[in-house]
Specification:
The structure holds three protein chains of three kinds. Chain A has 17 helices and 14 strands. By secondary structure, chain A is α+β, with helices and mostly antiparallel strands. In chain A, the strands form three sheets. A six-stranded mixed beta sheet of chain A has the order 2-1-6-3-4-5, with helices on both faces. Chain A has a five-stranded mixed beta sheet with strand order 8-7-11-9-10. In chain A, α7 packs antiparallel against α16 and α11 packs across α13. In chain B, 40% of the residues lie in helices and 18% in strands. In chain B, α9 packs antiparallel against α10. The longest helix of chain B has 31 residues. By secondary structure, chain C is α+β, with helices and mostly antiparallel strands. In chain C, the strands form two sheets. A four-stranded antiparallel beta sheet of chain C has the order 2-3-4-5. A two-stranded antiparallel ribbon of chain C has the order 1-6. In chain C, a hairpin with a 2-residue loop joins β4 and β5. The chains are: A alpha+beta, B alpha/beta, C alpha+beta. At the A-C interface, α7 and β12 of A face α1, β2 and α2 of C.
């Protein structure tokens, strides 16, 4: 069963500065997606691995099939934890030509990994050291000559060894609440850059495509930020951001479009590509904005704070929680406050039930029970479907499971997926 | 291989036609010298489909140095006919004619067809006259086009060669197509016309195919009914014997890899020529002694990875250029950014074969891979510079010319190596098959 | 009849590219479709959709949508050669006729950003 995964597993030895490719057997032995990732993590756990991968259906026109992941030992818990690769990063992970990537050890000098069409290159990152995530993304795209390269990067917070350091997808931060950014920092792995011009094949393409299109037709998720805000119990959050709202943006193959781009350096009604290179911020997750709103922040400074945290490579949710009771309005003060956050040692997870030993993060959104959230994450990370989309859209997972056979000859269901997690 | 190309390559006629070139296969030269743009690369798909691997890429300089003595078939594709004729000159024309009369086959598509029409008789074309015929798509003052203004015209003395339709046209059999099965039960086949001639051929026994009309899968610089009125019933492909050899002149690109029936037509004409050639006039390489398999030169793996790295990097930059509103005018031709990736894809798609060949000890000529690796690294650098200039709104013509020239050379070099390895595999070494 | 764009309805999900690419190549990719999501200005959130036909490009920019003739470089003048061939890589939109389907990009777009007219 390898048709939905086009390449080998890449083993990157940062100590030696070498790469090796081995056959991707875990998908048959353990299961696809995160199941394979966990098996690889276990296999290489003595080398402090970071595993990058994608789900079975990632990269296909299945609703929500955007999800990739980074898996590593969280410095906060000492246990394995995942961070989602959403937007276009998960799909590019699948298209990069490697099924899974294991990064082990630590580099003696700063490097970044450039994965392109099955070619693994370890590049010197000394010029990127000290750059924030925006500068890093721009620099790598400029060096390699392509704006569509997806850059999973660590910011200055990671380089400073902050326990708040999280990975960033391009400019926008991520859902990393396990400080995997700090792991990248420790490894002196500044970024993993991805680009692939390949194609994914299904075992039975006609049947797969027909079923995927049926699922798409049935999938519903109201456009935009608003339904997510409602699901989080804060329907007025959308209205709070409304004066700055430019457009909504979707992750790859997602009908949902729950990210909102806000402009505060330019009139949000400006539609053309103006001379303002950095007009605002993509608010890809409602939770950080929620924290700041509840803490009494005004909307524009809140978005500037989110931008500043994304630039530094700080966990947006935990960082927002730390900042929430100190509302600021001056842009300079906001940047300084965010910088100070990096030294915050005790910014643990919010109180609440830890689930799965913290594998999927500490926090269950109010939209779901802990069990439902756990199942959505398990199914999501194995099949490559955004768990938030699974929950909020109410998509019938039976339809998803029915895709696995024409995709890759895999018969599976909720029990099988639960079994993949032991 | 992309789905469309894969489906076209699976056309059943190719399996049958392969046998027509056994046991002695022709030696094929593809012209990629002055005036050849990029469509010469499509000949390689057809030759692969027919498993004709004795292939070389030659320039006008090679022809003038009498290289045609070593070949049985000469393929000339699209491009700038003026540049072709100008660089080949009278001596080139004489050598090509001698090549044909002594038993060779000349196939010209598009520019390669204009080149050899007797009726195209302004300088520098006058020495080239292999087909008694003329082009109809010429007039002193063509009407303004409805679309594709940049591809509509080419100067011809006081007149203009114009193109009323640009895309897929329908061909029907002519008197010379007796016994040809390419036209199928429908009696027609599709082929792409991209600026080639609408012919008028004097001797109707030399007409292999006529234009029946256009299809919906085309652009119409003229209103469709006017375009059809011009082309319907006129000649598309000429086939004539000349001395001991054969000339095939085609307005449409019969070699285009997405038109398998058009390929079949071309291949049947080749097979007919090959079957009827005087024996003993060719020296097929299948007769030459086989050299034993050696080991790949040291460092081959590293060079191959470097080639893969740089072709990938260049393709990625090329892809990024495709969404920019930029084109380059080089000579009389307009080049779009997609041409960059098109060239690179021909190398990229064949790298797995090279990988397997090197891995199983194929004798790769020393230094060949290193030279290619250095060359493609240059291409990546040129592509990045080009992109930076285009992004900042600067004139990038010079960079585009350097890049596209270099890409043409490198692609020809790579394909030479590729075909050599496939030929050597065909000649049979004791190692596992390298085929997909 | 052609595929047109309502640019501001587009959320940039790329489902249109996937469906179109599948129609041409029976595989999933973002490199061979007749419809292209332009997303190269990510920091500005500036994106649009381009639909390629034989004769022109329908360009749906956020500030407006229009059809632009391919290579409309030399208005009013004669010149430019025909020897530059159309590309192999991206086919022109055929409204999915060669697959015997309704236009798939329109069918899969979740937000009716694409329509036939």
């Amino acid at each position: 069963m390898d048709s939905m995964y086009e390449g080998d597993t890449l083993i990157v030895d940062l100590d030696a500065g070498t790469t090796d490719q081995v056959s991707f057997d875990e998908v048959d032995e353990a299961g696809p997606g995160l199941a394979a990732g966990l098996a690889l993590y276990e296999k290489y756990k003595d080398d402090d691995p970071l595993v990058f991968g994608s789900g079975l259906l990632t990269g296909t026109p299945v609703p929500g099939a955007c999800l990739g992941f980074v898996l590593g030992k969280s410095p906060l818990t000492g246990e394995p934890a995942v961070a989602p690769l959403s937007l276009f990063a998960g799909a590019e992970m699948k298209l990069s030509g490697f099924s899974m990537v294991v990064v082990k050890g630590s580099s003696p000098k700063p490097v970044y990994l450039w994965l392109h069409d099955g070619v693994p290159d370890l590049e010197d990152a000394s010029k990127l050291t000290g750059m924030d995530t925006w500068e890093t993304t721009d620099a790598i795209r400029r060096e390699m000559g392509e704006s569509l390269i997806q850059v999973i990067c660590a910011g200055p917070a990671a380089e400073a060894g902050s326990k708040l350091a999280s990975i960033s997808i391009n400019y926008w931060g991520s859902g990393d609440t396990a400080a995997l950014g700090a792991v990248m920092g420790e490894k002196k792995l500044k970024a993993v850059a991805l680009r692939g011009l390949g194609m994914l094949d299904a075992d039975e393409p006609e049947e797969f495509y027909a079923k995927a299109v049926e699922l798409l037709a049935a999938a519903s998720m109201d456009v935009g930020f608003a339904p997510v805000c409602s699901a989080l119990g804060s329907p007025d959050l959308d209205a709070w951001l409304a004066p700055m709202k430019h457009r909504v943006r979707a992750c790859f193959a997602c009908p949902g479009a729950c990210a909102t781009f806000v402009k505060y350096n330019e009139d949000p009604a400006v539609m053309e590509s103006s001379d303002i290179e950095e007009p605002g911020m993509l608010v890809a997750s409602a939770a950080p904005a929620l924290w700041l709103q509840h803490g009494g922040w005004e909307a524009e400074p809140a978005c500037r704070a989110i931008e500043a945290m994304a630039r530094e490579g700080i966990d947006l949710m935990r960082g927002a929680r730390e900042l929430s009771d100190k509302p600021l309005s001056d842009a300079g003060e906001i940047k300084s406050a965010v910088k100070v956050l990096e030294g915050t040692a005790d910014a643990g997870w919010p109180e609440g039930a830890e689930i799965s030993g913290g594998l999927f993060g500490p926090w269950v959104p109010p939209v779901a029970s802990a069990d439902a959230w756990l199942e959505a994450n398990r199914v999501g990370y194995v099949l490559g479907i955004c768990p938030t989309f699974l929950l909020i859209s109410g998509m019938d997972t039976a339809g998803l499971f029915a895709l696995c056979a024409p995709a890759a000859g895999l018969e599976t269901g909720p029990d099988e997926i639960a079994g993949m997690f032991g | 291989m992309k789905g469309r190309t894969r489906r076209a390559a699976a056309h059943p006629a190719f399996e049958r036609l392969k046998g027509d070139f056994l046991p002695d296969a022709p030696r094929v030269a593809i012209y990629c010298g002055d005036g050849a743009s990029h469509s010469w690369i499509w000949f390689t798909d057809l030759l692969e489909r027919l498993e004709l691997f004795d292939v070389a890429f030659i320039t006008h300089g090679d022809i003038l140095a009498r290289a045609l003595d070593e070949f049985d078939i000469l393929l000339v594709g699209g491009g700038d006919t003026y540049a072709m004729a100008g660089s080949l000159g009278r001596e080139g024309a004489r050598l090509i004619e001698r090549f044909v009369t002594e038993g060779g086959l000349y196939h010209g598509s598009c520019a390669g067809a204009y080149l050899v029409l007797s009726g195209v008789d302004l300088e520098p074309f006058t020495p080239f006259s292999l087909v008694e015929g003329n082009m109809l798509n010429v007039m002193p003052d063509p009407p303004e086009p409805l679309c594709l203004a940049h591809k509509y015209l080419a100067p011809y003395g006081d007149e203009w060669v114009f193109h009323p339709v640009y895309g897929e046209v329908e061909l029907v059999r002519g008197p010379a197509a007796e016994g040809f099965s390419a036209f199928g039960e429908a009696g027609a086949l599709g082929a792409p016309l991209f600026g080639g001639p609408v012919l008028t051929i004097e001797d109707e026994q030399c007409i292999l195919a006529d234009y029946a009309g256009s299809t919906a899968r085309a652009a119409f610089p003229w209103p469709r009914e006017d375009a059809d009125r011009l082309i319907s019933g006129e000649q598309a492909v000429a086939l004539r014997r000349l001395g001991d050899g054969t000339v095939l002149a085609s307005g449409p690109h019969l070699e285009h890899p997405l038109f398998p029936r058009a390929n079949e037509l071309m291949a049947e004409a080749f097979a007919q020529h090959w079957a009827g050639r005087p024996r003993g006039t060719s020296q097929s390489r299948t007769q030459t002694p086989r050299t034993p398999a050696g080991s790949a030169p040291r460092g081959a793996d590293g060079s191959l990875l470097e080639i893969k790295r740089q072709v990938s990097n260049a393709r990625i930059v090329g892809f990024g250029l495709e969404k920019m509103p930029v084109t380059w005018q080089i000579g009389v031709k307009v080049w779009e950014p997609e041409k960059i990736r098109m060239f690179l894809d021909y190398t990229w798609d064949r790298l797995p074969y090279l990988d397997r060949a090197v891995g199983s000890g194929a004798p790769v000529p020393g230094g060949a891979l290193e030279i290619l690796a250095v060359g493609f690294s240059e291409v990546t650098g040129l592509a990045k510079t080009l992109k930076l200039k285009a992004e900042s709104g600067q004139d990038s013509q010079a960079e585009a010319l350097s890049l596209l020239t270099r890409l043409k050379e490198l692609t020809a070099s790579f394909l030479s190596l590729y075909f050599r390895l496939r030929l050597e595999e065909r000649l049979g070494y004791d190692r596992p098959t390298l085929r997909d | 009849m052609r595929v047109k764009v309502k640019p501001l309805e587009c959320t940039g999900c790329a489902l249109c590219e996937l469906a179109c690419g599948y129609h041409w190549d029976e595989a999933f990719s973002l490199i061979s479709s007749s419809i292209m999501l332009y997303r190269a200005e990510e920091k500005k959130d500036y994106r649009g959709i381009i639909v390629k036909t034989d004769e022109d490009l329908f360009i749906g920019r956020p500030e407006g949508a229009e059809a632009v003739k391919i290579g409309d470089l030399q208005k009013g003048g004669k010149g430019g050669g025909a020897s530059a061939k159309p590309i192999l890589i991206r086919e022109a939109c055929d409204l999915c006729e060669s697959a015997g389907l309704e236009p798939q990009c329109v069918a899969v777009c979740p937000h009716a950003a694409l329509y036939l007219e």
